[in-house]
Specification:
With 96 residues, the chain is of the alpha+beta class. It is built from two helices and six strands, in the order βαβαββββ. The strands form two sheets. The protein has a four-stranded antiparallel sheet. The protein has a two-stranded antiparallel sheet with strand order 4-5.
């Protein structure tokens, strides 16, 4: 099972990566900061200076249909924001 699930590519994360050298990733819920740091360094060949993690709680969703009201929700996931050494970058758009 992989620690890094996918990179977060949003307007806010793109601005942080350009200005401050921070990149966001969706990571495995059971992983810790040390595992995330080593996974990013191994995958992208960069030096990580800091890792911040947060659990993003799922939201309840309700959908109204012709015959029924459906209740469900989104799942809870973990986000990691990784700060790189000054001058280093990750090219997330090369695989697109």
């Amino acid at each position: 099972m992989s620690i890094l699930i996918r990179p977060l590519i949003t307007e806010k994360m793109t601005a942080q990566s350009e200005k401050e050298g921070r990149y966001g990733f969706v990571v495995d819920r059971k992983s810790n900061k040390v595992e995330i740091k080593s996974a990013v360094e191994k995958e992208y060949g960069v030096t990580v200076t800091g890792v911040r993690t947060m659990i993003v709680r799922g939201k309840d969703k309700t959908r109204y249909t012709k015959t029924n009201i459906l209740h469900g929700g989104t799942s809870t996931w973990k986000k990691a924001i990784v700060t790189l050494k000054q001058g280093e970058t990750i090219d997330l758009y090369s695989s697109i």
